[in-house]
Write a structure and sequence with these properties.
- The chain is of the alpha+beta class and 265 residues long.
- Helices cover 35% and strands 23% of the residues.
- Strands 1-2-3-4-5-6-8-7 form an eight-stranded mixed sheet, with helices on both faces.
- A hairpin with a 5-residue loop joins strand 1 and strand 2.
- The longest helix is centred in the last third of the chain and has 34 residues.
C-alpha cells in the first residue's frame, strides 16, 4: 500500500496501535490555546469519521496543500487516513473537531520504521497554535509508536506556515524537489521540500506541551539549497538575540544625558 492510498478499508478505524499508546499513558493530552480555549488531543473516534472525511475533501478541493485532485469516498478516506493511527484535536467545551492528523509508515517492509504524517487544521481554527500542538505531539507519539524517523515527502514551499512549523520543531529540510506540484492559484509548478526528523534523538522526557509553548522559531537545519546554515546566518542570529544586552548601557547613558539637559533648561 502506498502512503498516498489504496488498499482495503476493512478494519481501518485509526486506532491500530491504541493499546501501545495506552500503555505509555500519553493520551489524552489537554492544554489551552492562545485564545484560552481548552482543547484535548486523542485518538479519533467513530463518531468523528464523518466530519473528518468532509474536512479532508474540503482540503483536497482547495488544491493548495495536498497532492490529491479527486475527492474520496468514505471507504477511500478510511483506507488512506485511518489505516494506522489517527488523532484529532477537539474543543473541550463544544466537542468540535479543530485539528486532525495521522501517523503511519512512509514505506513498506524494511523501511517501515520511517513514518509519515498528514495534518489538517480547519480554516476557521487557524492562527491559534493548533498546528504547532499537533506537530509537537506527533514527535512524541511517533517515537512512542516505535518509529525511528519521520519523513514528509511533500512540504510545498508555498505553504510557508508549514515550512516554518517544521523548522521550528527541529526538522531538517533534506532536499528540494523542483516543480513538484500544480497547485491552485499558481501559474507555474511549485517546489516541495523533503523534511526529516530523527526520532531516536528525541529524549525520553520530551514534553510536547513545553514544545508547544515555545514561541521563538529555531533556525532551520538547511537552507533552500539543502546546505547547512551559513556562519553569517548563525552570527547574525547570535547578535540579534544579544543586541538588547549590548545596547542597554547606551540607552542608559542617552536617557541620563537627556534628563540632565532638561534640568539645565
Amino acid at each position: 500500500m502506498s502512503v498516498y492510498g489504496g488498499g482495503d478499508a476493512t478494519g481501518c478505524d485509526g486506532r491500530l496501535n491504541a493499546p501501545k499508546l495506552r500503555e505509555h499513558e500519553l493520551l489524552p493530552i489537554r492544554t489551552t490555546l492562545h485564545n484560552s480555549k481548552e482543547v484535548e488531543l486523542d485518538y479519533i473516534r467513530d463518531t468523528d469519521v464523518a466530519a473528518a472525511h468532509l474536512l479532508f475533501n474540503d482540503v483536497i478541493a482547495s488544491g493548495v496543500s495536498w497532492p490529491f485532485t479527486e475527492s474520496m469516498t468514505v471507504n477511500q478516506f478510511k483506507a488512506y487516513f485511518l489505516s494506522h493511527d489517527a488523532f484529532i484535536v477537539r474543543d473541550v467545551e463544544t466537542d468540535a473537531m479543530i485539528g486532525l492528523f495521522y501517523i503511519k509508515p512512509n514505506y513498506p517492509g524494511r523501511s517501515s520504521h520511517i513514518c509519515n504524517g498528514g495534518f489538517i487544521t480547519p480554516p476557521t481554527s487557524r492562527g491559534l497554535g493548533i498546528g504547532r500542538l499537533m506537530g509537537a505531539c506527533f514527535v512524541q507519539l511517533a517515537k512512542a509508536l516505535g518509529y525511528k524517523a519521520s519523513y514528509f515527502n511533500l512540504v510545498y514551499v508555498s505553504n510557508k506556515a508549514s515550512v516554518r512549523l517544521w523548522d521550528s520543531l527541529g526538522f531538517t529540510r533534506l532536499c528540494k524537489l523542483p516543480r513538484a506540484a500544480s497547485l491552485a492559484g499558481f501559474d507555474d509548478l511549485v517546489d516541495a521540500y523533503g523534511v526529516h526528523r530523527n526520532l531516536e534523538d528525541v529524549p525520553d522526557d520530551y514534553d510536547p506541551l513545553e514544545e508547544f509553548r515555545v514561541s521563538r522559531l529555531r533556525p532551520h537545519k538547511g537552507d533552500d539549497a539543502c546546505a547547512p546554515v551559513s556562519l553569517t546566518t548563525k552570527l547574525w542570529s547570535a547578535y540579534r538575540d544579544a543586541a538588547p544586552l549590548f545596547l542597554l548601557p547606551v540607552t542608559v547613558v542617552a536617557a541620563t544625558a537627556s534628563y540632565l539637559a532638561w534640568k539645565r533648561n
